[in-house]
Amino acid sequence: MSATVLLGAGVAPVVWGVATGPLGRRVVAQNMGTTVVCLVLLLLAQGYERPSYADLALVLAVLGPVGTLVYARLLAEDLTGIPPAAGALTVAAAVATGAVTVLLCTAAAPGRTTAKLLVIGALLATGNVIASRALSGGFPGASRAGRRD
After folding, report:
1. Model confidence pLDDT, tens digit, residues 41-62
2. 109: exposed, middle or buried (C-beta count within 10 Å: 0-12, 13-18, 19+)?
3. Residue 34's domain spans which residues?
4. Is residue 146 included in any domain, yes or no?
5. Is 124 part of a structural domain of the chain?
6. What gap in Å lies between CA 26 and CA 48, rounded to an integer?
7. Distance (Å, rounded) from C-alpha 110 to C-alpha 82?
8. What angle do CA 78, 137, 60 make, to 5 degrees?
9. Would you say residue 105 lies in a domain?
10. CA-CA distance, 131 to 63, in Å (whole number)?
11. Which of 3, 22, 54, 142 makes an SS bond possible with 45, Cβ 3.0 to 4.6 Å?
12. What is the pLDDT of residues 111-131, one digit of tens each?
């Protein structure tokens, strides 16, 4: 039930964001889409007792933010004008990731499953924050002295 609610509430704005608007919003929506699908896979893995769904979520938690970073690098010239504002979505994704991870760790038996859920949650939250910051212009105060253009 919760996977259906998350899928319905999360995918509709993602599809709208990817299909319309400027390039920056499309890339941010793609990043949010990987987070939503990863959380849905985690909920389905627990609900249907299918550990393979959690393995898919693990792969998506690693590759989703990497794909967003590739887009940010390849589209850097197009994103330089007005960087997309990803602050609210980053906070929403981090809160949702934390909530789903804590709920699933509570429902799962202590052991390997809980450790895997914590790793997936940490990868997803960290990757989303890094990818969102890369899209919105980088980290404040970061030096660009060693960067080659």
Report:
1. 988 988 888 888 889 999 999 9
2. exposed
3. 2-135
4. no
5. yes
6. 32
7. 46
8. 85
9. yes
10. 11
11. 54
12. 888 888 899 999 999 988 888
